[in-house]
TrEMBL record:
InterPro entries: Ap4A_hydrolase, Calcineurin-like_PHP, Metallo-depent_PP-like, MPP_PrpE-like. It holds the Pfam family Metallophos. SUPFAM superfamilies: Metallo-dependent phosphatases (SSF56300). Residues 18-204 form the Calcineurin-like phosphoesterase domain. The lineage of its organism: Bacteria, Bacillati, Actinomycetota, Actinomycetes, Pseudonocardiales. This is Protein phosphatase. PANTHER family: BIS(5'-NUCLEOSYL)-TETRAPHOSPHATASE PRPE [ASYMMETRICAL], METALLOPHOSPHOESTERASE. It comes from Saccharothrix yanglingensis.
């Protein structure tokens, strides 16, 4: 008998959905609850049609209730009703919780202060969860790829330092836009892959399809909206932010 090859952690091609893919939450628990209700999920994350939530990373930082968002997301992932990839904010939170040297900026202070009011056991669970997250997932037989900052086709299914850096951070041009957000290399304009790529990371006013890719970060924590895409239906669902929770510092 020939042993089947071990499946890599990012390779979830056997999971075919349907999925509800959610953009950057950034500690906005009330808005996340609202969005999940709009998508038909029960308070514990279950769905009558068996839909799975996919979080695109950056669950943490900046917003008012990072512990609440993590408590919900961790419970859903443990119950098998959600998946999540790792964002650059989870990456920095892991380093901070491990006691490593990290710049406490861009909302990390809010997360650390909020988590300081939780139990040591909860903080340990948060560290284990965030550190377990993969930078990207390949889903639905390779037809769907999710990565926090997007991912060019040549890195789909690859495990490498370059893949990790692109999936977590993207490639910065060194410039900032008029809102103060870093300008990323426009990889989506050059994309010609067969897989749909869903990502977040850099807030957009409106999600716009570009060569089969879509950014779902609509800046909820900055007073925008929290947005999800129903897959495979390609239906966008958004809820408004209750308020501006975090002011983006302009360069």
């Amino acid at each position: 008998m020939i042993d089947e090859p071990t499946r890599q952690p990012h390779d979830l091609r056997h999971l075919t959905g349907p999925f509800d893919v959610v953009g950057d939450v950034h500690g906005c628990r009330v808005e996340l609850d609202h969005l999940l209700r709009e998508l038909g999920h029960s308070p514990d994350g279950g769905h009558p049609e068996g839909r799975t939530v996919v979080f695109l990373g950056d669950l943490v930082d900046r917003g008012p209730d990072t512990p609440g968002v993590l408590r919900l997301a961790m419970g859903m992932v443990e119950a098998g009703t959600a998946l999540s990839v790792r964002g650059n904010h989870e990456e920095k939170l892991v380093r901070a919780l491990q006691g490593r040297n990290v710049q406490v900026a861009h909302g990390l202070r809010e997360s650390l202060d909020q988590l300081a009011r939780e139990t040591p056991a909860f903080r340990a669970r948060v560290l284990e969860f965030c550190d377990s997250l993969e930078p990207h997932h390949v889903l639905d037989g390779g037809r769907l790829v999710v990565a926090h900052a997007g991912l060019p086709e040549r890195y789909h299914g690859v495990r490498s330092p370059k893949m990790r850096a692109l999936a977590l951070w993207g490639q910065s041009t060194g410039e900032h836009d008029e809102r103060g957000f870093p300008v990323r290399h426009p990889w989506a304009r050059e994309y010609s892959g067969a897989a749909m790529v869903l990502y977040g990371h850099t807030p957009v006013e409106e999600p716009e399809w570009v060569n089969g890719t879509l950014c779902l970060d609509t800046g909820c924590v900055f007073g925008g909206r929290l947005t999800a895409l129903r897959y495979p239906e390609r239906e966008l669902v958004s809820v408004p932010a209750r308020r501006t929770w975090y002011e983006q510092a302009r360069p």
